[in-house]
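Fig. S4 source data, part A: sequence.
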Amino acid sequence: FLLFFLFCFHFQHNLQIFVYFSHNACSFPPYSYIVSATNNNTLIFGCILTEWAKGKAENLELFGSKEKALSYAEKLAEICHHMGFHGYLVNVEASLDTKFLENVKGT
């Protein structure tokens, strides 16, 4: 891991975007990654991930209504602003009924 970390950040000036990813429902980049990205003019994003059977329930919780979607979006934006990164990659791998997509438009 250390070798990857050193390689990644030694060449970060060549990156336009870096997405911090883990197999957690919500991943925030560590502070040291944020500082390095900022110093190298690289956009840095956290990740929202829903996967497997558990992800179906998470999708319903996140996108089940416009009010829920807006509430989560506002809280995630606050975290993003507080920590100093640029946003999130939303990676939906679990089943999601397309009718719920209306709940996130314009959010």
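Fig. S4 source data, part B ends here. The two ends are 36 Å apart (CA to CA).
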